[in-house]
Design brief:
Strand order of the largest sheet: 1-2-5-6
Number of strands: 6
CATH architecture of the largest domain: 3-Layer(aba) Sandwich
Number of domains: 2
Number of helices: 11
Helix content: 40-55%
Distance between the termini: 24 Å
Largest sheet: 4 strands, parallel
Strand content: 5-15%
CATH superfamily of the largest domain: Alpha/Beta hydrolase fold, catalytic domain
Structural class: alpha/beta
């Protein structure tokens, strides 16, 4: 299971944000007889290392190592290995699939095909719109911060420019450290090119009320990728994989974090994984054998 962005542990939790997404999905998969591997990002949870200096390429390398480890487990069938990604994990997954063509499939939850700059600026514009509609003390405070520091869109543009101009792993923005290498590498990615080279079968699940990633990108990815794809747009689901019957907002998204992950999402994921056949052609079987041996060879 590949995380979204941020210093997340194996359950997509971090200080001040308890999402408990991957542990919920892992339990549902286990109940259906499907094993899964969750892990803390480097420098997060119980994992050693430095999160701030890690780039997108480092997260891809970590995911590759974890996948190789999973393939060596005796209880796991190497001809039915899947990757499940959420948000940023959805752009790591197809890159990993190109490295390991023996994968049986990718489950992508709230994927995106926009370039990262467009994603960030669209999110900032949404936040700006929400702030403008606030009233009372909250509206006053947010408005005051905007006058002092600039609008969310202006701040995002300045950050992107600063990151692109940097050559170090970590920069400072105000009083905070920021993972410049990570964002610089994400900004350089071409999601359309990545998906156009992905032949692995994909289940693409979007949330109708996802404000972080464009829900319609599941259809664009399906049209772009040469491999088999299936799409599902879940009504009222937000980026956090929960249902919200009211108009969705970024500022209010965490209010549903204590609710369970969409049952429709878990049911579809299990059904799709169980429906895909194991690798059957000689070329893919050979790739599976090489994949299972790759870690021991690299050691």
């Amino acid at each position: 299971m590949l995380h979204g962005s941020g210093p997340l542990d194996r359950n997509e939790n971090m200080k001040g944000q308890q999402l408990n997404i991957f542990n919920h999905l892992a339990q549902a998969l286990a109940d259906a007889g499907i094993a899964s591997l969750r892990y803390d990002k480097r420098g997060c949870g119980n994992t050693t290392g430095e999160f701030m200096s890690a780039g997108h390429s480092d997260l891809l390398a970590d995911a590759s190592y974890c996948l190789q480890w999973l393939a060596e487990c005796d209880q796991v069938s190497t001809d039915k290995l899947f990757i499940l990604g959420h948000s940023e994990g959805c752009i790591i997954a197809p890159q990993l699939a190109q490295q390991q063509p023996s994968l049986a499939g990718l489950v992508l939850l709230c994927p995106f095909m926009e370039d990262m700059e467009s994603v960030l600026l669209r999110q900032a514009a949404q936040l700006e719109q929400e702030i403008a509609s606030l009233r009372g003390v909250s509206g006053f405070l947010y408005g005051l911060m905007g006058k002092v520091f600039g609008s969310p869109t202006a701040l995002q543009r300045r950050l992107i420019e600063k990151v692109r101009a940097s050559k170090v792993d970590v920069i400072r923005t105000g009083l905070k450290r920021f993972p410049a290498k990570w964002l610089r590498e994400l900004l350089a990615l071409d999601p359309a090119a990545i998906f156009s080279a992905t032949h692995t079968p994909m289940l693409l699940i979007g949330g109708e009320k996802d404000l972080q990633c464009n829900p319609d990108d599941i259809y664009r990815i399906a049209e772009t990728a040469p491999g088999q794809s299936e799409t599902l747009l879940i009504e009222n689901m937000t980026h956090l994989l929960r249902k919200d019957a009211e108009p969705a907002t970024i500022l209010g998204s965490m209010q549903f974090a204590d609710q369970p992950v969409s049952g429709e999402l878990t049911a579809k994921t299990i059904q799709w994984i169980q429906s895909l056949p194991a690798a059957s052609n000689p070329a893919q079987q050979a790739a599976n054998s090489n994949f299972a041996d790759s870690k021991s060879q690299s050691n």
